[in-house]
Amino acid sequence: MQSETHTQAGAARAGVVYLVGAGPGDPGLMTARALELIASADAIFYDRLIPPGALDGARPDADLVYVGKTPGDVPQVGYPYGPGKRGTSVGQGETNGRLVEAARAGRSVVRLKGGDPFVFGRGGEEGEALREAGIEFEVVPGVTAGVAASAYAGIPVTHRDDASAVAFVTGHEDPEKPETALDWDALAGFPGTLVFYMGVKRLADNAKALIDAGRDPDQPAAAVERGTMEGQRTVVATLATLAEAVEREGIGAPALIVVGDVVGRREALAWLERRPLHGRRVVVTRARAQASGLAATLRGLGAEVVELPAIRIEPRIGSEEVRRAAGRIGEYALICLTSPNGVRLLFEALAEAGLDARAFGGATVAAIGPGTARALEEHGITADVVPEKFVAEALVEALQRVELAGSRALVARAAEARDVLPDALNERGAEVDVVALYETVRETPSEDAVEAAQAADYVTFTSSSTVRNLTEALGDRFPGEARVVSIGPITSETAGEAGLEVAVEAERHDIDGLVAALLADAAR
Ligand code: SAH
Questions:
Q1: I want to staple 116 with a disulfide (CB 3.0 to 4.6 A). Which of 21, 160, 240, 268 is the partner?
Q2: Which residues pair with 408 in a beta bridge?
Q3: Of 8, 28, 32, whose CA–CA distance to 20 is shortest?
Q4: How far from each other are the two terminal CA atoms of the chain, in whole angstroms?
């Protein structure tokens, strides 16, 4: 058992500066402690190379300040197409001063850096400046790129047969330093793996210096670009030929250079490139609030995901109609829900009426599919009816055995849904209330996302409204080469009407079914 103190050290304290490592780029490699501090800090001073979404958990009222260093540099928060203040650069002295100032003002301060703060992160200098100013600080280590990018490239930095030691080396020294601090003789003779940070620009010179000092020119060497991030690339050559290969492949920063026999292990250990959707760019068109599950699943399978939300959910639970339905929820013999959003919003409406799941009483509850059923489950309600196919017609079919004549039924759904279900219930003698819990409105996709979508291999559609809105929003910038993946026949039909050719249609009309269909297509 882990004790509380081991898993949680508590919120960021006032007047304290936390030097926090954000890891190498994959948001999943941020530490629990880093996330906890980001979520509680008053102010966050962040660098260029922090993972996409790293600041998403920050308090809405926290100050987020970019203090990247490279002159003329572009912050890459949310890389490849996130926000960021462009073209600014802040000197180290100024950063130190601002940390001190914020802490003195009694604020809790997170200084967020890529990788580990004490590995080529100038965290040492910041700590010294803080100590000198009498400011209390703590250090939160991060997963450093030298270890992480190598691991994602299938290169173990140590290995029982190949390397008993590993050295982290800077490939680009402080240009203001009068003489080199690197001892090339020592590095050439180092009995283990050499990992160069900031080593792309001077790769040719550094390789030559190593070879001149006696390192084997035929030793395997690799460059890992954008390690652990989407689009990671690895180039393998020898110490003598790596610079040429890097030039040819157009490898750019951030990249890591690994020199040593362990690079040869990549042949057996590469795993990233073996994932089923590796190298495939997939567009997700769901509303942002719901996209994350699908996007995460696809990323986990190796896909490069472009989120191009075509719609946004506008709740309507304040409406008279919804309030009335929520207030008399106990009177319905049948309650039909047609989406997880509907479930979420119905319960919000109930809560506003001072009610909860108990108000459902003895009603028969029908869910259009397993996602909706799962959402109900989260509120303690097991759906009585879930059809085998997740379309309104199938739900009507599944409700055949429920006696409806003379009873009240509620259909809680989106504003713009089809009337198949309420019509069928009416026909069978039920008194049907239809309430619109939300409407889906067009979202204008960002220019960067549209640009990234142009090279997509797949565009996924999970509803007719995403098809209509995205095709209208993109016009002739719809990625024509991409294969269109549809969640089911209704969505496919709408896609056809919009002039799209559906390449793949899910057999199971839910997110898992859509992913399965995409995987099968990609494996062709
Ligand atoms: N403190 C950071 C290193 C900062 S120095 C850490 O511990 O990882 C910046 C250099 O780190 C880059 O020039 C590059 O060589 C390396 N680097 C950082 N992130 C990287 C990544 N995702 N992939 C490859 N190299 C990376």
A1: 21
A2: 431
A3: 32
A4: 46
3-state SS class at 404: coil
CB 308 within 8 A of CB 467: no
Cα 280 to Cα 303: distance, rounded to the nearest angstrom: 5
Does 69 qualify as catalytic in the annotation?
yes
Q: Mind listing the pLDDT tens digit for each residue in 267-290?
A: 999 999 999 999 999 999 988 777
Ligand 1 in reach of 195 Cβ (< 6 A): no
Pull the structure tokens for residue 106. Answer: 């009694």
pLDDT over 60 (residue 77): no
How many alpha carbons lie under 13 Å from residue 128 in its C-beta half-sphere?
7
Q: Is the CB of 438 under 6 A from ligand 1?
A: no
The token pair at 2 is 């882990």
- Judging by DSSP bridges, how do beta strands 311-315 and 431-442 pair with one another? antiparallel
DSSP labels, 159-216: BTTTBS-EEEEESS--TT-SS----HHHHHH-SSEEEEES-STTHHHHHHHHHHTT--
Tell me the H-state helices in 24-144.
32-40, 92-104, 123-132
Which of 241-250, 295-304, 436-445 holds the top average pLDDT? 241-250
**Pick from 410, 358, 352, 354: nearest CA to 379:** 358
CA distance 256 to 262: 15
226 Cβ below 6 A of ligand 1: yes
Q: What are phi and psi of 2, to 5 degrees?
A: -90, 140
The C-alpha atoms of residue 437 and residue 386 are separated, in whole angstroms, by: 20
pLDDT tens for residues 80-104? 323 334 445 677 888 999 999 999 9
Catalytic annotation present for 229:
no
Is the separation of the CB atoms in 503 and 484 below 8 Å? yes
**Candidate from 256, 257, 259 with most ligand 1 atoms within 8 A of CB, to mutate:** 256
Looking at residue 55, its amino acid is L
Confidence of residue 58 (pLDDT cuts 50, 70, 90): very high
Atom number of ligand 1 nearest to Cα 117: 1
Q: What is the pTM of this model?
A: 0.79
Look up tokens 């210096």; give the residue. Answer: 209
Neighbours of 417 (CB within 10 A): 20
Q: Which residues contact 141 (CB under 8 A, 6 or more apart)?
A: 21, 31, 116, 117, 118
Tokens representing residue 366 in the block: 């029908």
Structural element, H or E, at residue 141: none
Name the active-site residue from 73, 185, 198, 384: 198
Buried b (16+ CB within 10 A) or exposed e, 197-208: bbbbebbeebbb
Catalytic residue among 42, 47, 116, 510: 47
CA angle 354, 358, 364 (to 5 degrees): 125
- Is 389 considered catalytic here? no
